[in-house]
Structure formats: structure tokens, C-alpha cells
Amino acid sequence: MLSLLTPLDIISVLWFFGVWTGYTLIADSERLQHRSVLGIMNEHRQRWMHEMLRRDMRMLDALILNHLQSGIAMFASTSILVVGGLVASLGATEKAIAVLSALPFLRETSRFEWELKILLLLLIFVFAFFKFVWSYRLNTYCAVLIGAVPSSTEIDADAKDQARRAGKIANLAARHFNRGLRAFYFALAALSWVLHPIAFMVATTWVAVVLYRRDFHSRSQQIIRGIS
Asked: Are 154 and 210 in contact (CB under 8 A)?
């Protein structure tokens, strides 16, 4: 099957997965965690759970978790809709190829190439769906842990330990949600493979640069970090 692809196509796919995997390993590493938005927000989530212990009525914490879960649910639903649309597009392969062939500066696309490109997008959005659903469940676990913490007048070492564990679960949920969002970014890069393998590699590199800037050098990162 690989013989049906050009060497440039194979290189572009390897570049795509290499950049995505490499960026994930670098951005989520413990060495750079204190500089990324995700790592800084992990510290704030731990502080949130520490402050939660002092509240008698923890409705505020429940509202925050509900807000987070609603956003995650929206992205999970979007992922499923996209997957459905991509599956439907496989049934219109001939029409899609005819549309692409009419566009200037595009080489002729075979049925196998089109279906492979759609399958790549399907893989990405299925991956994103699982990340969002798991993040949703982790936030549910966090809500239960918060609900099991005793009132502020009965705080002991066990309660503090439970709050610490709730913070870790919240951080883990955020990590999976962030990886789901990252998949959306790289899906946009994968879409450019329809145009040309070189466009695919350029778009992949561009997405990695955008993500790096937003994770490590954005205005929001500076504000959250407290240096601006």
C-alpha cells in the first residue's frame, strides 16, 4: 500500500507524527512544566483545592467544575460530529476527487490517496474524542473527591490529603483536555495534505510554532505567571 504513495507523501506523514509527538513530549515534560501555561495552571488548581478546604459551602467549586465540564462536553460532541462528517465523505469520494481535480495547481488525486487522507483525519478526531471524554470523567472524579471533603471546621491531615488528590485529578483532567485541543490544531495541519505534501509539512510546522508561542511566550502565559 505504501508503494501507492509518493516518497514526499511518506516523508510528510512521518514529519507530521514526528512533530506532533516531539512537541507533546517537550511541552508536557517536567523540565519545562513550570514555564508552560498548563504547568502554571496546575499550580493554580492545587491552590484552588487548598482554598476549597476553607469554604463551608462549596457551591463555587461545583460551579467551576460544571463550567469546565460543559466546555469539555462541547468539544467531545464536536469531535463526534466531525467523525460522522468524515465517514460520510468517504461515501462521496468520486465527487470529492472531481472537485479537487478542477482546482488549479493541484496534482491528480487517486481514490486511495483521498481515502487515506480522510482516514488520517478520522484517526485524529477519534483520538481527540477519547481525550475529551476521559477528561470529562476525571472532572467527575474530582467533583466526588471535593464532595467527600469534610466541612471547614473538621479539616485534618486526611482532608488535606484528599484535597491534594483532588488537585492532582483536576490537573490530569486538564492535561488530557489540552491534548485533545492540541489534536484539533494538528487536524487543521492534516487537512492541508489534501492540497500538497509540502503544504502539509509547512502547516504542521506552523501549528507547532503557534502552539509553542501560546504555551510558553503568549501574553496570557505572562499574566498567569505573574510577570506582566
From this structure: no
Assess contact for 15 and 204: CB atoms under 8 A.
yes
DSSP per-residue letters across 110-174:
-HHHHHHHHHHHHHHHHHHHHHHHHHHHHHHHHHHHHHTSPPGGG--HHHHHHHHHHHHHHHHHH
11: enclosing H helix or E strand: helix 7-27
User: CA nearest 128: which of 198, 184, 71?
Assistant: 184
pTM for the full model? 0.89
Handedness of CA 4, 5, 7, 11 (dihedral sign): negative
Domain boundaries, the chain: 7-29+38-218
Per-residue confidence (pLDDT) for residue 195, from 0 to 100 = 83
CA distance to 44, 129, 133, 158, per residue, from 181 (Å): 20, 10, 12, 35
Residue 2 has pLDDT above 60, yes or no: no
Are residues 200 and 158 in contact, defined by beta-carbon separation less than 8 angstroms?
no
83: helix, strand or coil? helix
